[in-house]
Design a protein that fits this description.
About 75% of the residues lie in helices and about 5% in strands. By secondary structure, it is mostly helical.
Length: about 140
């Protein structure tokens, strides 16, 4: 039974590979078109980030901000790889500030943690604006 299943799977994969166009953007295949659309525009939601900055400085808002700013940092690094010039100094600075914010929060000092996250947000926002990425409306 196992051999029949493996054989049928191998034949299906091989047949699919022969019948479909290669998944390269140059070939005009379906996967190539999807890749081009995926890299077309980057946005982020600044309103949600501002909401958590305006709330009480506690663990709940800190965790939400940490997650959103980490995602924004990853997006920044992707955009920098595509459009940036020179060395990504903002990415390294943000990584250090995120670590500082985590350390402060782990010690219960949410004021210092939120101050580090505010600096992270401003740095990422300024760098993304230079690369043409704007917040979603």
């Amino acid at each position: 039974m196992k051999k029949a299943f493996i054989g049928l799977t191998a034949v299906t994969v091989f047949g699919f590979a022969l019948l479909c166009q290669p998944p390269f953007p140059v070939s005009g295949g379906r996967i190539g078109i999807a890749t081009a659309w995926a890299e077309e525009e980057f946005t982020y939601y600044d309103d949600e980030i501002q909401f958590h900055f305006s709330g009480e400085k506690n663990l709940v808002h800190f965790n939400h901000l940490m997650g959103m700013l980490s995602d924004l940092w990853k997006t920044h690094n992707k955009v920098f790889d595509l459009r940036g010039k020179g060395e990504n100094t903002v990415g390294a600075q943000v990584e250090e500030l995120l670590n500082d914010a985590n350390l402060a929060a782990s010690q219960g000092d949410y004021e210092a943690g939120f101050a580090s996250l505010k600096t992270v947000h401003e740095s990422l926002k300024a760098s993304l604006a230079k690369m043409g990425v704007k917040p979603a409306k």
